[in-house]
Here is the input.
Amino acid sequence: MRDTLSLLFYLMRLRVRTRLEFRAALLITWLAQAFGYAGIFASIWLILTRFGTIGGWTWPQMAFLLGFHTLGYALGACFTLVQLRRMEDIVLGGEFDTLLVRPLNPWAYLVFSGFNIEYGGHIALGAGLVAWAWPQLSIAWTTDTCLLLAGGLVSAALITASMITIIAACALVLGRARYLFGIYFDFWELSRYPASIFAAPFQVALLSIIPLGYMAYVPVAVLLGRPVPYLGAFAEIAALSAGPLSAVAAFFFWRFCLKRYQGGGG
Amino acid sequence: MTAIIRAEHVAKIFRQQVRRSGMLGPLKDFVMPVTRPVNAVDGISFDIEPGEAVGYLGPNGAGKSTMIKMLTGILAPSAGTVSVLGRNPQAQRVLNARQIGVVFGQRTQLWWELPLIESFELHRRMYRVPASVYQRNRADLVEMMELSAFIERPVRHLSLGQRMRAEIAMALMHDPKILFLDEPTIGLDVVAKDVVRKFLSRINRERGTTIILTTHDLQDIEEICPRLIMVDDGKLLFDGTIAALRVTFGARRRLTLEFAQDPGHVELDRAEPAGGEGVQRLFLLPDDQRPLLHILSALKAGADLRDVRLHEPGIEEIIRTHYQSKVSA
Amino acid sequence: MSAFLALVTAAFRREAEHRSRILMRILGGLVEILARISIWKAAFGGHGTLSGISLDEMITYSLIGGTILSSWDATMIVRDVGATIRTGAIGSSLLRPMHYPVMLLAEQIGVRLFDWLLISLPVIVIMGSIYGLQPPESLAHALLFVGYVVVSLAILMGFAILVGLLSFWVFDAHALEWFMRGLLAVLSGGLVPIWFYPQGLAEVAHALPFSWIAYHPLAAYLGQRDLTEELLILAAGAGWAAVLAFAVAFVWSRACAQVVVQGG
Here is the structure.
């Protein structure tokens, strides 16, 4: 076990070293991605300067939500997105076969050997928004709120990693998964807004089968003391357990698909 | 000796998806796929002893890669059993992986952006090779494969031949008991092919590593593998030595005799006349191990023999003849 | 010209082959429009009209701004150009009888026409029948809108190709793509109409060509200005399109020199 962990850590270090060979490019990527997100966030800010609130959410509250969403996403995506988004190619090109002849779990190999430090821009922007908004929202610095903030972020990261893993696992069986990533990102965009502004069926979906509502809306609403529809008093515990629960689901789904893997590429 | 690899009535049936047409076809394919079975491997059995070098041969789509995938633990057979080093390679995939080496001719297992030596180091950690064993193996393999000139260079800058040498060296770094190679010489130039072949045959001889390789190139087999397994359409066609292959497929040695002057009627014991006229005559010899001199002694005394040529058919010829006869049949 | 049309139709046909992708993209379009409309409904919060704009108008703005005039997918051009340059495939395009930017334009027009017909139209019909789509202010405004769409496409393509060609010098097209996204999110007015912007920012946005990508066409559709003013603004947009075309031609000639020097 310790050997495996140190191997995974070594794989991460190798990838980071490879990326750091092109520092200038990395820095530009961080800036560019932060700029891209900032443009979209600025649009939301523009609406709020005119209208005051969206569904009762003020700009500082909205900024906190956007920051939390970006941060939680980046923490999960740096382990999964770029490496698993090309799962279709990994399977069809036969690369997955080469992973199966190594004495290591293929998912762990992909995830750790592909550890992506391109999310610096996301993290700076997300943390910046949270840090800016927190003092204006008069959220108390208590053990409870700190735990919810940290736990909620971990949960959001786990939801991200789990959903990406589940979609990637589809490629093991179907040979295709790229379109599913497109759909994932469409719903992911919904999850950066307060779920309460959507029609009821979408609220229910985002709080159940597509657990993206727990990415940011539920934990942030609890921190802000806003009511959460359908969940009420269970909102906090739901926010903290959504991540681990989706990780369990992803674990079993990946195993299910791996058992049905029939080889790729010739 | 007990077999190191055993395949018993192994079959692999893939379900190939039937694509439906029409606007809603892809949606239907997605929700309720319709499939038809394809027998990639169809009831194959063989045993391989430790230290053997076996060529696994067949045309495209014959089920070569599928068999390798079952032996290396990538796929499970649909029926029958495979056992590698006494284990079920798929159920005990990780344990099996530690004791075998696998090289895919068309897919690299090296770390593209980093110097070659980093890939070796990663391999050492992944296979938990003890430091002393690793030092010794690396020194040996680098020398044998002549890797020292480019071991510090990023893999993306290596030529295909250099890369393949490195792949094979890496696959041997953890002292695997069995080395599987899927098309190891594909795309290499003549010189690189030769280096790889000589190396593999040396590893097999000196280290006693069991080698299983699939290939299109029959020369690979001629130079590395005393034993040959031939498959087609998922079925076993032949399993034995190259000499036995000649017997089985009736490929006979061809004897050409050249005389100073037309000898008239020429008859050789148990040899079949195969054309020629005048001073040059051709015969097909049966594989009965008789010395050539013995055969020639049957010639009439006084026949003025100028030249004798004996042509051994290569396996390429044998197999080509076999497939041609199959097509015409 | 016939070669140009051939490329347009070829791109159109290529897109049509991925049928499951069409269904997925329609679904994605529906979700995107749902998000935009939900935001406006929440922002208006029960008021029918704010700052002289009605919620119904904003729903129409979202429906068209999020589909026909969406600039998101156009950033893919930057990625394509970047890949062509990085892999060296650009060298072979110098041998073709058509200039590379013109070829790109033809292909992208094919892709765009396809998207409008098979993705934007179904999304507008479905969401429009749920939330209601306002007709153009008048027939004249409708005709102007068509002209504006042409100008919008020209400016979007021109800008995307220009940014894409920059990856001759700045090698990371991926980063350029993100910069372009951020820029267009605010300055095209595709998400939020410029009439809601604070004055300073609004003036900047008006002065730059990006507002012709989404904002001006939609303002014309909704009849925000009288026809004389519309014609003047449309002419200004056409002027911007021409400027961008010249810029592309200039950058391309420099890039060609670069390819020749580097040996492709």
